[in-house]
Specification:
Elements lengths: L2 E7 L2 H17 L4 E7 L2 H4 L16 H8 L5 E5 L11 E6 L7 E5 L13 E3 L3 H10 L4 E3 L5 H9 L5 E5 H6 L8 E4 L14 E6 L3 H8 L4 H17 L7 E8 L2 E8 L8 E8 L6 H11 L2 H11 L10
Parallel strand pairs: 1-2, 1-3, 6-7, 6-8
Antiparallel strand pairs: 3-10, 4-10, 5-8, 5-9, 11-12, 12-13
Length: 319
């Protein structure tokens, strides 16, 4: 094998991620020529509706997967948080890169922190997960949808369309965009639990090529793989879609695993929340076990009701 083709989205952050993986592969396999197949995903085209109304996060991955299945790419580099728990036949999510800082970050041109926002302050996010957690803490705030690429979102903030917005810290840091924002507050994992897979890259491959498998496995970080598998197991078992407010995050601390989970209504009410610490050697089924426990306590009914009220004003226009 002399050439390897990486399928990637064309957003600035996606390209940063793809070039990062390209550089790692070329350093480890100098005889392999790596090129990018740049694809505009459906999720990048439709910027005026929440993801839940255009089919969810799979709209960031489907076109890349189609290119691989058509033989036009060997691997795809995804933000793992965008990868559904279902992987199409013929493909495999084989590796997860080392996770960086998973925090969300509060950004504002007017206010130093969430606590300093005035009554009725306007905060931008299209994430139901963030909306739920923000309104649980500050039910007085007004949360407005925020779509577009990172630069578009930051421009809307600067123009004063929002008093503050909340984004993932890692993307802003990778693109060196934090320096231009007057006030930033990195939110602790207890204050704002991230989504499944945040701050890690998922490496998806076409099955059946041993060299591609070897290359993909060289990118894997074992601890991150363990943590993100716990998260993906939980989401898969509980059946949480993009229109359900669910947060889940696992971290390894020494020989322990800390797993935080929250789900509820988008308005910050009817919250179910768990924080479990267990030994690393007993964590294999942690995501599945906690999902079963929450299902026994009524999580499925809660999520069904949450999905009914999520984006209720937009549902007649659902695509």
């Amino acid at each position: 094998m002399q050439k390897l083709t990486i399928a990637t989205r064309v957003s600035d952050l996606a390209l940063w991620q793809a070039y990062h993986v390209k550089a790692r592969i070329e350093a480890s396999f100098p005889d392999i020529e790596v090129k990018l197949n740049k694809i505009v995903s459906n999720g990048d085209k439709i910027l005026d509706k929440p993801l839940a109304l255009i089919g969810g996060k799979g709209h960031f991955t489907k076109e890349l997967e189609d290119e691989m299945l058509a033989g036009n790419a060997d691997i795809a580099v995804h933000s793992l948080k965008d990868v559904p728990t279902y992987i199409p036949d013929g493909l495999e999510l084989i590796s997860v890169t080392k996770r960086q800082d998973q925090s969300d970050v509060f950004l504002s041109h007017k206010y130093k922190s969430i606590d300093e926002l005035p009554q009725g302050g306007v905060v931008g996010t299209t994430s139901l997960r963030r909306r739920m957690q923000l309104l649980q803490k500050r039910p007085d705030l007004k949360v407005k949808d925020l779509r577009g690429n990172v630069n578009t979102r930051l421009r809307k903030l600067e123009e004063g369309q929002y008093d503050a917005i909340i984004l993932a810290w890692i993307g802003l840091n990778r693109l060196d965009l934090l320096k231009d924002i007057p006030f930033t507050q990195k939110l602790s994992l207890d204050m704002m639990i991230p989504p499944m897979g945040q701050a890690a890259l998922g490496i998806e491959i076409v099955q059946g090529n041993e060299k591609v498998l070897e290359i993909a496995r060289s990118l894997n970080d074992e601890n991150t793989y363990i943590c993100t598998k716990i998260e993906r197991d939980f989401i898969s078992k509980i059946g949480a879609g993009c229109s359900a407010p669910v947060a889940c995050n696992a971290v390894i601390d020494g020989d322990k695993v800390i797993f935080r989970v929250m789900l509820g209504y988008p308005d910050g009410t009817n919250i179910m929340q768990e924080k479990i610490t267990t030994s690393l050697d007993k964590s294999k089924n942690l995501g599945l076990d906690l999902a079963r426990k929450m299902i026994d306590n009524g999580a499925l009914k809660l999520l069904k009701n949450a999905e009914k009220i999520a984006f209720k004003d937009e549902m007649p226009q659902r695509l």
